[in-house]
From TrEMBL:
It holds the Pfam family GNAT_acetyltran. SUPFAM superfamilies: Acyl-CoA N-acyltransferases (Nat). This is N-acetyltransferase. GO terms for molecular function: acyltransferase activity, transferring groups other than amino-acyl groups. Residues 131-267 form the N-acetyltransferase domain. It comes from Vallitalea longa.
Length: 267
């Protein structure tokens, strides 16, 4: 059985998702931040005949994330929900789960990444900072997007100042950055899907002319230090080997794989 989830389901859903908290960081974070009555997100639950929760599907804006505690469970109902959503959409999640959806979305591009986590500040390998790492405010939203829009790797990602501003206001994420002598933002590391127990690193970037100076490592080191001091686990995923070296050097360990299915936008 499948049905829409509501506020009365909060405890049951979070207990289910926290069986695998790192993999479910996006769903947990969005529930804690936006709840069940926000027009930009919807949640469905799949239940066994005896009423036990078996799966959760999140729609956050145009993104869908399915999760099952058993990848062999029938995913037909979740597939139909996503197929009935006629707008542009992105489907992502744990690779062993998303592999069961790929055949139903044959014209979607497949991107596979490594999923990593860092649990303890004692595991963080951070050198002393040589530069001032600043924490972004709501008023920095446009500057953040302007920086990301100059980076080739972020061309296919929606960099909307209003979304960044909303994230910062709701404390669903934070952004740490370094400026040059002119006060221009040149390197950044960010989080999203922050919740009471974890945070996801995203949007890590440095302007081309400022690379190989260790700026992004310093942003990451400061960001990770602050989050770990709060007792949270930090997660991230990557596909760039150079980025992977930075993350593993900092202390991150690969625990799984993450897959994204994305259809090209029609202009």
């Amino acid at each position: 059985m499948i049905r829409k989830l509501h506020e009365k389901d909060r405890i049951t859903v979070l207990e289910f998702l926290n069986e695998d908290p790192s993999i479910n960081i996006f769903i947990i974070g969005d529930i804690e931040t936006y709840g069940f009555n926000n027009e930009m997100q919807e949640l469905w639950g799949q239940f066994s005949d005896d009423g036990q929760m078996e799966g959760v599907l999140l729609r956050y804006r145009e993104s869908f994330i399915p999760y099952y505690n058993n990848p062999n469970i029938d995913n037909t109902d979740f597939v139909n929900i996503m197929l009935n959503y006629k707008e542009y959409k992105v489907i992502s999640g744990k690779s062993s789960i998303i592999s069961k959806f790929q055949s139903m979305f044959p014209d979607y591009k497949i991107s596979k990444t490594y999923f990593c986590e860092l649990n303890n500040i004692d595991e963080l390998n951070a050198d002393p900072l040589k530069n001032i790492v600043k924490i972004a405010k709501e008023s920095d939203a446009k500057r953040i997007c302007d920086l990301l829009n100059t980076i080739d790797e972020f061309n296919s990602i929606i960099n909307d100042p209003e979304r960044v501003k909303t994230k910062l206001i709701n404390k669903a994420g934070r952004s740490y950055y370094i400026e040059n002598d002119k006060g221009e933002m040149v390197s950044i590391a960010q989080t999203t899907a922050e919740n009471t127990s974890s945070a996801m690193i995203v949007g890590v970037a440095t302007l081309k002319e400022y690379r190989k100076h260790g700026y992004v490592s310093e942003c990451m080191a400061k960001l990770c230090t602050d989050i770990l001091k709060e007792g949270k686990t930090i997660c991230l995923f990557y596909d760039n080997p150079k980025a992977g070296k930075i993350y593993h050097r900092l202390g991150f360990k690969t625990i799984d794989n993450w897959t994204m299915l994305k259809k090209s936008r029609v202009n």
